[in-house]
């Protein structure tokens, strides 16, 4: 059991996940349960029902086809005796998509990767996805895990972003580096890293401007930020975390396409899963981009930003309401 588990308790984390994924359960996995109820084999009708459930949850056509094809292979090879076993087979194939697509446990219990200090995370994403809030929650949870944290308010194009991050700084008692609205974002990022090195911070979280994917000059700013912070820490940033709004479904996939084409995204955070029945988008994102989903947001509380555990995610989805 890690420190984060000790602070919050495994049961409490499972409860947060259960509650946050309730709508997806009701809108998606209940359909699968009905599809296999009373069945002792997976026939074409069952596969059609499962396919419809996956598509309705915004798993996406590409990932849905992959899951259905794997189910068909197992049907052709194995014998099934009851609905419970069929349910297990479907769960295993959905789980396989996540585990094979995004093998990574680097932040388990909000621990940091070893070998360097500070650990610098550059956070990107369009306005409205919960980017700044996610940074605040990360700061809170890293602090609870015993890490010294520094925030950098490099989203200088939107005054509300700096104000919002400042509130999180005060709420979590985490220091922040900021400048007036309109300042050069790269300058703020540079000063943040200089300060973090001087403070011997464990982790530095740098907010960036809400990137509209059709504005190339904003994407260029990311490259500039990287260049200037590498003058201080040559291998920085150690993570480029793209925040996506899970409630937007396929639009989240489109944002991911544009960001991954424009910059070297190394990790994903999917927010607002508690407000949608389209939690299946996590499957699509993990499968199509082969970029680890490292955090998921399943509620309003800071502790509702969970380190993403692929197996636990699927287990809790299939256990909600059972």
Textual characterization of the structure:
The structure is a single chain. The mean pLDDT is 84. Helix content is 53%, strand content 12%. It folds into two domains: 9-101, SRP54, nucleotide-binding domain (Four Helix Bundle (Hemerythrin (Met), subunit A)); 108-310, Rossmann fold. The longest helix is centred in the first third of the chain and has 19 residues, at 83-101. It has an eight-stranded mixed sheet with strand order 3-2-4-1-5-6-7-8, sandwiched between helices. The protein is built from 13 helices and eight strands. The protein is elongated. It is α/β, with parallel strands linked by helices. Helix 11 (250-262) runs parallel beside helix 12.
Which characteristics define this entry?
single chain, 322 residues, alpha/beta, Four Helix Bundle (Hemerythrin (Met), subunit A), Rossmann fold, 2 domains, 8-stranded mixed beta sheet, 13 helices, 8 strands
